[in-house]
Amino acid sequence: MAKDIAVLAYSGGLDSTISIDWIKENYGYEVITLTVDLGGGQFSDDLESRAKKAGALDCVILDVKNEFVKDFILPSLKAGVIYENNYLLATSIGRPLMAKKLVEVAYKYNARAVAHGCTGKGNDQVRFDTAIKTLSANEPLEIIAPAREASLTRDQEKEYAEKLGIKLPGVEERVYSIDRNLWGLAIEGEDLEDPWVEPPEDAYLITKNLEDTPNDPAYIEIGFKEGMPNKLNGETMDFLEIIEKLNLIAGDHGVGRVVHVENRLVGIKSREVYEAPGATVIHNAFQSLEKLVLNRDQSRMKNMISSNYSDLVYDGRWFSGLRENLDAYCKSSCRYMTGEVRIKLYKSKCDVVGAKSPYSLYSYDLATYSNDDKFKHDSAEGFIDIYSLPSRIQRKQQIHDELTD
After folding, report:
1. How far apart are CA 83 and CA 308, in angstroms?
2. Which of 76, 77, 262, 362 is the most exposed place for a label (fewest CB within 10 A)?
3. What residue spans in the chain does CATH classification 3.40.50.620 cover?
4. CATH number for the 364-397 domain, one of 3.30.40, 3.30.420, 1.20.5, 1.10.10?
C-alpha cells in the first residue's frame, strides 16, 4: 500500500534537510522536496543528492525566475512597496510564489500534505500558510511545519543532523539565517540580533564594504515603458536581465544595504539586515519618474496605496481581492510612466541626477525664474484672495479674539 506524500519546500540548508527525516518519522509520509529557484544564485549544485541522502523520495527543482519577475516583482515595483520605509520586501514577495508552486506540485503528485521550515514566531509561517490555505481552499492540503511543531533550537538541529550522519557546509561555523532571491537578501541571527552591535562584514554577501568600493562614481541610465524597466544604459533588455546586472553594478558600489528594526506581524520586533542593490536602484529611478508624470493628487493617493500594499504583502495576503484591486490602480497610474532616469552610484549612495519623459508635467517655462518665465505673476493675488477666504471668514466669525487673550 502506497504511503502518503508530503511536498517539502527545500533550500538544502540545515532546517529543510533534517525536516525530511522528521516528517517521515513523525508522520509516516514519504517526502518529495521542492526547490523553487527565484534567482540570486542561492542554491548549491548538490541539492538533489543532499535531499536523497537525507531520505527524500524524489526532488523537484523549478526555475521560476521569469514568473517571479513578471507576476510578483513588477506589480510590487509599480505599487512602490517598501515596508516601514526601509524593507523592499524581497522575501515577502517570493513566499507567495513558493507557496503557489507547493500547491501545484502537491496536486500533481496527489500529495496529502505540504511542508515548510518556518518557525513559530516568524512572518513566513503566516505567508506560507495563508497562501496555501487560500490556493487549496477547494481541495485542502495538510500543512506540516517541523521547526514550529518540534520547537527545535539551532543546537538541537545540529545534533539531529549529526545523528543522521548529515554534514552540511558551515554548520559548525557562525551561521546566519539567509533568504536570497533575485530581488534581494534577508539576513538574521547571530550578532545581528543585538540592535546595539554593528553588523559585521561577514553578514553581507552581495554588497561591498564602503572602504572597498571604487573611488570613481558610476553613472547608469534606466529606461521605463509604462512602469516596466526595459533599458539599461540605452540597451533594450528584459527586466530580469536588468535586475541581474544592477545587482552586480550597484553591489560593487556598496549600494543597497539596510539595517532595520521592524515590526513583525506576530507582534515582536526583530532586527534584520537586508541587501537589495538592484532593487534599490530601480525603486529610486521609478519614484523619480513618478514625480515627473503624476500630479499632486495622484502622488498622494499613490503614497496611500503603497503603504497599504506594503502591509498587505508583508502580512502574507498576496492572494487577496484587495491586492488585485490595488493592482488595478497601480496599473492605471503607470499609464504615462515612460522615460529615462540617470543615476549616480558612489560610495554606497544611489542618487538620481536626471530624469525625463515625453509625458512629463514639468514645464521649464513655468518653473524658471529666468527671462524665459511664462508664469502669470499677476494672477497670484486673485488666487490667494480666494484661497484664503475660508480661513479669513473663520477667524472673523469664530476665533477673532484669540490674539487678545
Report:
1. 10
2. 362
3. 5-177
4. 1.20.5
Residues of the chain with CATH 3.90.1260.10: 179-356
Q: Does the annotation count 311 as an active-site position?
A: no
Rounded Cα gap, residues 278 and 182, in angstroms: 9
Q: Indicate if 315 belongs to the active site.
A: no
User: Which of 15, 21, 129, 179 is flagged as catalytic?
Assistant: 15
> Residue 307 corresponds to which cell in the numbers above?
503603504
Residue 352 bridge partners (DSSP): 343
Rounded CA gap, 311 and 265, in Å? 9
Q: Which of 11, 19, 50, 95 is catalytic?
A: 95
CATH architecture of 179-356: Alpha-Beta Complex (3.90)
Question: In the chain, how many H helices and how many E strands?
Answer: 15, 14
The CATH 1.20.5 portion of the chain extends over: 364-397
Could you tell me which residues are beta bridge partners of residue 269? 263
Full DSSP string of 254-292: TTTEEEEEEE-TTS-EEEEEEE-HHHHHHHHHHHHHHHH
Q: Is there a catalytic annotation at residue 44?
A: no
CATH topology assigned to domain 5-177: Rossmann fold (3.40.50)
Which residue among 19, 76, 124, 136 is the active-site one?
124
Per-residue pLDDT of the chain in tens (405 residues, 90 and over written 9): 357 999 999 988 778 888 999 999 999 999 999 999 999 876 777 888 888 988 999 999 999 999 999 999 999 999 999 999 999 999 999 999 999 999 999 999 999 999 998 888 889 999 999 999 999 999 999 999 998 998 776 777 777 777 777 766 555 555 678 889 999 999 988 889 999 999 999 999 999 999 999 999 999 999 999 999 999 999 999 999 999 999 999 999 999 999 999 999 889 999 999 999 999 999 999 999 999 999 999 999 999 999 999 999 999 999 999 999 999 999 999 999 999 999 999 999 999 999 999 999 999 888 889 988 898 999 999 999 999 999 999 888 887 565 555
